[in-house]
Amino acid sequence: MKIAVVLRQVPDVVEELVIADDGRSLAEGEVMCITNEADEHALEEALILKSRQGGKVTAVAAGGDEAKDALATAVAKGADEAILVAVPFEHRGDNVRLASVLGPAMKSAGYDLILTGVWAADQMDAGLAGLLAVHLSLPYVGGVMSVSLEPSGAKGLVRKEFPGGRLGVMEVSLPAVLGIQSAEQPPRYVPVSKVMQAKRTLQVREQAEPSPVVQGIRASKLIKSGSAAKAEMLPGDAKQVAEQIVRILRERGIA
Amino acid sequence: MSAESLLVNVEERGAAGDATDEFMRRMLKLPMGDKLLSCIQCGMCSGSCPLGYAMDYTPRKMIAALRAGRVDDLYRSEAIWLCVACFNCTYRCPVGVPITDRLIAGLREELLGRGVGVPPELQAAFERTSRYGNPFGESSKKRDAWIEDAGVEVPVLQGGDSAEVLWWVGCFGSYNKRNQKDTIALARILHALDIDFGILGTDERCSGDLRCTSQGEEGLFDVLYHHNIEQLGKRKFKEILVGDPHAFNAFNKEYRRLGTPLDVSHYTQFLAERAPDLKRRAKKEITAKVAYHDSCCLGRRNGEYEAPRVLLETIPGVRLVEMPRNRENALCCGGGGGANWLDSYVWQRTRVPLAMQRVQEAAKTGAEILAISCPLEVPRFEDAIKTSGLEGRLQVREISHMLAEAIGLNGGVRP
Fold first, then answer.
1. Where does B282-392 have alpha helices with state H?
2. Is A109 contained in some domain?
3. A188 touches chain B (CB under 8 A)
4. Peptide bond just before B415 cis, omega within 30 deg
């Protein structure tokens, strides 16, 4: 069983995001990258499948040089192979473009299963997994919460979340691309000493794909969200506060 | 029993003993690790553990299990994550077994290495500390944002700069909104005393106390240690002043052990040396009965019981009362050793938070103020006061904040 996991490097929103001078992109120099949260779940699911069924997990990072840290962490957690597909910063949020770069990079490797997070913090358009499936002519299921594979490796059983709290169980023939909503258990912890060790011995295969000519989408403007109206504390004792609440409700025609 | 004989015994037991053997070999390589072999099974540790009643394996039973070659039983025990690093066991052990720092830390380290059974809240704290240098997951660029509200100049030392005193603000003091008030109070006191001081600003990271207080994340400690000594090495200073007893412990013991001796004092020690000067300045009365809570890390762990009390006595109007369990017998707030991030884990297994027991004990003395010297205790005790229905009767106050009030330094922007 060969499983590939895509680890997208997205802007870390803990750090302040700065809009570049062009007014329609983020200032790259100010951005700290972090592995997309849903992709961390995809990696966890891949490692769960590996421990259950055996096989080989390949971590495929899409990003710049900083993605090597993400790859080292993935290897420390149990991934067997690390590939870096360089994607220029300005193209990373565009899943159509991303799929057209990752598709050829993953095409001939013979993966039985390709997992990505079902969403990304910086995505501008539809999910990556579905687009990748089109590029690779493979079946696709998104919103997946658990995967079990037949011992033969020909089929997989996935649980998918539907809106309204409903859950579907479906069969998918392999190879396939899955968009992972959440892994069966939270992403595992790997101690820093193991990550440091993995960094020292990490062997990354860098795969340079020619940037395809894709008619992607174009952000025309980036703006910071303004702060909403501030909360107002009503002063006074319970009776006074109650009177004020009644007045406010009447004024707004609610009561 | 010698180290060799224990290991030989373990080897005779065959495969079942292999994991125990490996664990013991690791222990024996660490300073004081061989003390584990001196245990006389008296049970003082288990009896003095404030959460021993909830442990399937108490410290004494843990050592007994090791002797029986059954370390795997310990790896399956939840007791490993119940330790709150209060150091009662270590302090009271008649033969000096470093239970908290070696036995518990060693067991946790093994589980961390396997990546199994690590409670999720603690895991998140580790990951954030590793990425951002603080357990809250705040941007490291915002570490010194509090100085805008300080109302006095707080010099941020850049590489090559120098000051007499380097003030290590710490994660809680830098980021926690409630602790920031006390941080600012201390800044104003240092300013009033004309101390030539500076801070590291955004170059400061968690002191790495994580590991020192027996969480067992050795690798993370190592990374933080190297970052911090590199940053400290770029500045010139004579001594380090810390606000958090856990950072005090890290510098005082662990950094020293790793080859970086620093002249470090907790702020209560630093200010207690200047008590006569502070007494002259402290004009405003704080008329209240005050009970001081000895933090485990400053008290039992580092033997400082007097400095905080000396400072409280410089404040006019303060009547110091003692809780029945004080000084080396003080009850832990329950936040040490990573337990600040294990609250729900510990609560599910004990149901009576230590912080609640402690604030009730303080209230029984008739104290109106529970004075503290460790930043973790402010949020912990304030929450406990709310859940114990003691709001309005008991206040939690950092000694620095009380001192600043007595000297007339509070008010203005924040405190």
1. 306-313, 343-350, 354-364, 377-387
2. yes
3. yes
4. no
pLDDT tens across the length of chain A (255 residues): 999 999 999 999 999 999 999 999 999 999 999 999 999 999 999 999 999 999 999 999 999 999 999 999 999 999 999 999 999 998 898 999 999 999 999 998 999 999 999 999 988 887 899 999 999 999 999 999 999 999 888 999 999 989 888 999 999 999 999 999 999 999 999 999 999 999 999 999 998 877 777 777 888 999 988 777 788 889 999 999 999 999 999 999 887
- Map chain A to HEC letters: CEEEEEEEEEECCCCCCCECCCCCCECHHHCCEEECHHHHHHHHHHHHHHHHHCCEEEEEEEECCCHHHHHHHHHHHCCCEEEEEECCHHHCCCHHHHHHHHHHHHHCCCCCEEEEECCCCCCCCCCHHHHHHHHHCCCEEEEEEEEEECCCCCEEEEEEEEHHHEEEEEEEECCEEEEECCCCCCCCCCCHHHHHHHHHHCCEEEECCCCCCCCCCCCCCCCCCCCCCCCCCCCCCHHHHHHHHHHHHHHCCCC
Report how many domains make up chain A. Answer: 1
Q: Give the CATH number, domain containing residue A25.
A: 3.40.50.620
Is B128:B337 a contact under the CB 8 Å cutoff? no
Task: Give the A window 51-90 contacts with B, CB below 8 Å.
Answer: 77
Q: Which domain holds residue A13?
A: 2-207
Q: In this predicted complex, what is the ipTM?
A: 0.85
Give the domains, in start order, of chain B with CATH numbers: 3-114 (1.10.1060), 121-271 (no CATH), 274-407 (3.40.50)
Query: How many residue contacts between A and B have a Cβ separation below 8 Å?
Result: 44
Element (H, E) at B165: strand B165-168
Domain assignment present for residue A215? The answer is no
| Residue B120 to chain A, least CA–CA distance (Å) | 8
Mutant choice from A35, A193, A197, A199 vs B, greatest count of B C-beta within 10 A: A193
Residue A192: inside a domain, yes or no? yes
- Asked, for residue A128, whether it belongs to a domain, the answer is yes
